[in-house]
Every structure is written in C-alpha cells, then in structure tokens.
Amino acid sequence: MSAPLPPAQLRDCPAPAKLNLFLHVTGRRPDGYHTLQTVFQLIDWSDTLHFERRDDGAVLRVTDVPGVPADSDLVVRAARALQTATGTRYGVEIALDKALPMGGGIGGGSSDAATTLLALNRLWGLGLGREQLMRIGLGLGADVPFFVFGQNAFAQGIGEELTAVDLPDSWFVVVHPRQHVPTAAIFSDERLTRDTPISIIADFAACTNKFGFGRNDLEAIATAKFGEVARALAWLKQFSPEARMTGSGACVFARYRDEQTAQQVLDRLPSEWDGRCVRSLSRHPLAAFA
Questions:
Q1: Which of 139, 168, 185, 249 is most deeply packed, by most CB within 10 A?
Q2: pLDDT tier at 31, thresholds 50, 70, 90
C-alpha cells in the first residue's frame, strides 16, 4: 500500500509565545554569541499561520508584515532552509496573522519560524525527526530550536541545549508597553555583565518558587535604555513583587495561580499600554508534527 499523500494545505497553525522565567548571561563565545541559562515557558498567546503547498518550488509570503520584507522574514527563510536541507520539489504560500508584538521578548519571530518548519514537515511529507528540525532551526535563530522542541525547557549554551521541565499550571499577566526593544541593542551594551555563575538544573528543580528563581540579566540594561519598559515593570511590581522582564524586552510579566486574580490586575492596566491575561502551556500545539 502506498503512503498517503501529504495534505495540500494546513490552516490555523498556532505559533505560541514564550516567557523567560529567568535569564542569566554566563559568558560570551569567540564568535560573538552569548552563552545563557534560562527556563522557557510556553503560553497560549499566538500568531497564526496558514500554508498552501505549491508544486513549483516557489516560497511566497502572501500577507504583508509592516517593516519586514518577505525575503528577510523568518517564515520565508525557514521554508527555504527546509527546502535546502531536504531537496524537496515543493514550495508554499504562507499567510501570517500577526498577533504577537515584534521586539517584545516573547519569541514571536522565532516561533513563527518553528511553526513553519513543523507545518511544512507535514505539508511536504518530509518525515523529519524533531532533532533534525531543531538543527535547521538553530541556523535561523537561537530561540527557534526551543519552539521545535515543543516543551517547557531549561536551556543552556546559546539556547539550543534543552532539557524538558515540568512547570505548574499558571496564569500570567503580560504587559507590552508599546516599545520596540532591539535585541542587539541590549546584548551589545557595554554595561551588560556576562559572568553570572552557572546554575545546574537541580538548583532550579529544588526551588520551591520556580517563578522567583534567579533574575533576568538583561532587565537592568533594557529598563535603563527604554523608559516605558521601566515604567511598566514598576507598575506590575505593585501587584506582584516578582514581576520581571522576558527576553531582551519589551514585555514584562507576572505569574498568578488563577485567572480571576490575573484578570483583576489586568483590569487596572494603564490605557497607554497593551496587556494580556494568558495561560501556561505544557506542550506546543504542533508537537505531533515531528
């Protein structure tokens, strides 16, 4: 019996955001990449992508993303990287419904790329394993392998050394202060310390309050350079002293045990900022695609 043909299209494919529960910068490699330790938490706030297979090999983004030319978009680059790695004759049309803020530190572009790899693995009938897709993803960005990995994870190296961790079900208030924070501007700042002592995963596992473990080493730089990030963080700390920034900013977040408490905080959000009440995820919605 012949193998079933892959689908002609895949619609409504989510690309979920992430939070960094802590983020330590432990060093800098000769190639300029920083070595990190972090815990990635998936959340149910997503971009949505739609894919339609082409037989002519063309990769087309059919929706406009302001400020992001198609050829430099990570979804297009991910599709082309997968073509190069596999030699497939297929192409794709990609439509992107963008909900996650760019420059927010929640991994929107990286997650879009990972969803593209996972979806096209199915759409093109490639049958690649997760490790193969993660290797392709690493060439696109340090956070992409995590989203392909598909589980909450303790990460090391430049973010590609991943160990799954169990995290309690939680609700988060995520605040975006309508500020775009370029990652390069934070990592290149001369004030950034790059020598936080290395932790082991057992240190995190043994911490009773995992959401209070460590700190975000990038937070001091981002709040010094971008006043709206500092103000949003100070506002959120009124309700949750353990509130912190995710990634290189601009989003800040706090964790709550139930939706009602989180919503009560969100209801008081100043009108000049955007905010969401979101639930934790334990697995990527497309985890079964690899």
A1: 249
A2: confident
| Greatest Cα-to-Cα distance within the chain, rounded to the nearest angstrom | 64
State the average pLDDT over residues 260-265.
98
CA separation, residue 30 to residues 23, 35, 183 (Å): 21, 11, 19
Q: Which of 18, 47, 73, 210 is catalytic?
A: 18
Do residues 27 and 34 lie in contact, with contact meaning Cβ atoms separated by under 8 Å? yes
The predicted model scores a pTM of 0.95
- DSSP-H helix ranges across 22-159: 74-86, 108-123, 130-138, 144-149
Selection from 106, 108, 160, 165 nearest residue 134 by Cα: 160
Q: Which of the following is catalytic: 98, 143, 210, 217?
A: 143
For tokens 């596992």, the residue is: 205
Of 55, 17, 52, 23, give the one whose Cα is nearest residue 39: 23
64 is known as an active-site residue: no
